[in-house]
Amino acid sequence: MQMLNSINNINIAPHFNLSEFACPYCKRIMLRPLLLEKLEKLRKIIEKPIHITSGYRCSRYNHQIGGVTNSYHCIGLAADIKVKDINLITLLEICENIDFTGIGFYEKKNFLHLDVRPTERTRWRE
Ligand SMILES: [Zn+2]
Q: Is 55 helix (H, G, I), strand (E, B) or coil?
């Protein structure tokens, strides 16, 4: 199983590893370069580790966790993130400046959904 343990263990940006974006169910990945670029930009501004709580999801995994059908996670355009020791509103404001096209604000669960959908700017909160 040694091969499986190191699968996707590749640094793809100064602060990100490919494995962080993999579907936890099947280890497959799709990742749009623009999403990675914006996340790296965010990482440089906040100077704190970004925990990717959900990156790519295959449709089976997405269904299993109750994600919306046609989720941007399923085409490599979205990531859910958590950052320790930073106010979620502050984090949101920084993400607005980086201009992610989709931003979901999850106050109770304390995370942000960020995406680079090619359509119009979309914002929501839960
Ligand atoms: Zn999967």
A: coil
Beta pairing, strands 102-106 & 122-125: parallel
Bridging pattern class, strands 51-54 and 111-115: unpaired
**Ligand 1: distance of its center to the CA of 22 in Å?**
8
CB-proximal residues (5 Å) to ion ligand 1: 23, 25-26, 58, 61
Distances (CA, A) of 107 to 6, 39, 67, 115, 124: 34, 20, 18, 17, 11
Q: Quote the ligand 1 centre to 120 CA distance (angstroms).
A: 28
Residue type at 122 in one-letter notation? T
Per-residue pLDDT tens listing for the chain (126 residues) = 556 679 999 999 999 999 999 999 999 999 999 999 999 999 999 999 999 999 999 999 999 999 999 999 999 999 999 999 999 999 999 999 999 999 999 999 999 999 999 999 999 999
